[in-house]
Design goal:
The protein has 191 residues and is of the alpha+beta class. It has one domain: Aminopeptidase (3-Layer(aba) Sandwich). Helices cover 34% and strands 32% of the residues. The chain is built from 6 helices and 8 strands. An 8-stranded mixed sheet has the order 1-2-3-4-5-6-8-7, with helices on both faces. A hairpin with a 4-residue loop joins strand 3 (67-74) and strand 4. Helix 1 (18-33) packs across helix 3 (53-61). The relative contact order is 0.15.
Length: 191
């Protein structure tokens, strides 16, 4: 499914997009977590089995029909982000859909594009019967947490240790939305 927002568009990833998705995910991590995660973690992302091109190639090849990957670009064709979402796979009770990854590079941030992508994601999952929706975020990522809270997401769970690096432990918080996603959250705020 394709979509657009002023100055940007997105499309479903093709099987030959693995290298592009890897570059976008790695750039997204480096921009988002600079100064928040050890440099050793950020400098080794190309070798990370969850971020490299082989990993994305496997994901795309084995993608079930209830899993979607969007590639986001400017109207000039410059890739600026990705969105990976679908059936909830981390076993959060009561949730049918999960936003696995959303990365927008800095030039695409603060323009309303993230909200538009989230709306597309919620609509796609609602039509597929994958609602309500959850997303996991590092507990120290205040910018993302604030964004999800403004969109009506509420904390729904915590994973104690996701990974360790340089003597630090990294934890995640689940944010969840009620059925109807962004539309239900907006209506509740107005009501």
């Amino acid at each position: 499914m394709a979509g657009s927002y002023p100055g940007f568009s997105w499309r479903e990833a093709a099987s030959d997009d693995a290298e592009l998705l890897s570059r976008l995910a790695i750039a997204g991590w480096r921009q988002t977590y600079a100064g928040l995660m050890p440099d050793s973690v950020l400098s080794a992302l190309e070798a990370n089995p969850h971020q490299n091109a082989e990993s994305w190639s496997r994901r795309l090849a084995r993608r079930p029909p209830d899993r979607w990957t969007r590639v986001v670009a400017t109207d000039a064709g410059e890739p600026v982000g990705l969105l990976w979402f679908g059936r909830e796979e981390r076993r959060v009770p009561g949730y049918g859909g999960e936003i696995e990854k959303i990365y927008l590079l800095k030039p695409a941030q603060g323009r309303g594009l993230g909200r538009a992508l989230m709306a597309d994601c919620f609509q796609t999952m609602e039509v597929a019967g994958l609602s309500p929706v959850v997303i996991w975020v590092f507990d120290f990522n205040e910018r993302a947490r604030t964004f999800y809270e403004k969109l009506g997401g509420r904390p729904r769970g915590r994973r104690e240790v996701v990974f360790r690096a340089e003597g630090r432990e990294f934890h995640e918080i689940a944010y969840g939305w009620a059925p109807g996603g962004l539309g239900a959250a907006a209506a509740a705020r107005r009501g």
